Amino acid sequence: MSSAKRKRSDEDVDTAGAAASAASEQPLKVPMVKEGSVADSKEIINIVSNEDEEDDGAGGEGEVLDTIDKTSLSHNCPYLDTVNRHALDFDFEKLCSVNMSNLNVYACLVTGKYFQGRGPGTHAYTHSLMTDNHVFLNLSTLKFYCLPDNYEIIDSSLDDIRYYLKPHFGKEQIELVQNGTVRSRALDGRTYLPGIVGLNNIKANDYVNVVVQILCRVTPFRNFFLVEDNYKHIKDPLVTTFGELMRKICNPRNFKSHVSPHEFLQAVTTASKRRFKLITQSDPFEFLSWLLNALHLKLKQKGKRSIVHSSFKGMLNISKRKLPPTEKEKDMIDFDLDDPEYSETTSPSPFLILPLDVPPPPLFSDELEHNIIPQVPLFELLNKFDGVTEKVCVGLDGYELRLHVHEFFLAVSVTISTRFFTLPAHVGDLQFRTTEFNVS
Using CA atoms, how far apart are residues 171 and 174, in angstroms rounded to an integer? Predict the structure, then answer.
């Protein structure tokens, strides 16, 4: 009898276990509730609450806690003290240092290196795990993230880094740059004037640096590129990188007292089809002419003048008349001074660049066997454009040309650099123009 009872009890346990497992596999059936049924609604609440308690181990409440933790960490990231501003340099191309991709690039704010991606398995994620660096900046969206936890960092102490990467200017900032009276201080303690900073010579790009520095001192031209909204609709790399370089030169909150034109040089090499390269010296006058024409073609719109023509284009009055015959020729030919052929005709001619007449170098060399560069006052060279002096040219066809430019106002101080020297000047109502001379 005892053995038979034991078998029955074992069979009952097996049956109960099978029924319990089958019930657990079936979906939970929630009874239908009619409106106003308070008892049934309490029953549903109890069922749902019991179900939530059973699912706690599966992460239902844990996910909510993770969201709360990430929200609190976004405003209280524990790794902000690891940011190294001295290592940051946003002047170079925004390319991943591993696969050289320009898509979804992040900057490590500890080492200053660029990496792609943010999710698990990406280069930025791997760098964070291997080097224990956690603070990253998306170079496109300007948002900060903590890796590998992958939450956004929201902290006002990082605003200076965002402004250093992408400076922007309002009317007040532009006036401060234009006045040039407020000095700024870099991280290394050096002071500088916004708009007057050094440009790095990467290889042989000093001819580009000279032109950029000169154009940065032309007020309407510079102010146009300081406001990004003026040309944000143009997606050409030459325009965007040139505007970015102008804003970095005039940035009053730079981390360094110098700027590298690397991105602009890459755009110039591509746009000029490798005519101007950073590893080869070129003529700065040729580069200036090419750059002004390239920017004009990309910025011009129908019915409007581009900022290049508005700032640099002027009108030159050219007076032309036929020369009367000499004393010896008078006896050989008949002529009449009242003939319209000998009357003077004046025609305007547009210009972007006017040359200055530099005296030739001396014939003999000095004690060091070098030709001494003539020391000529700048204003003496500019007398040809004082509105009074006329430049007379006699052509082979017997016609005399007289060039006359309206009175101008010198608007910039210049430091001679390399062999060529260009000078932006203001020509009365003609606004800004550029003149050029050779000091070799």
Answer: 5
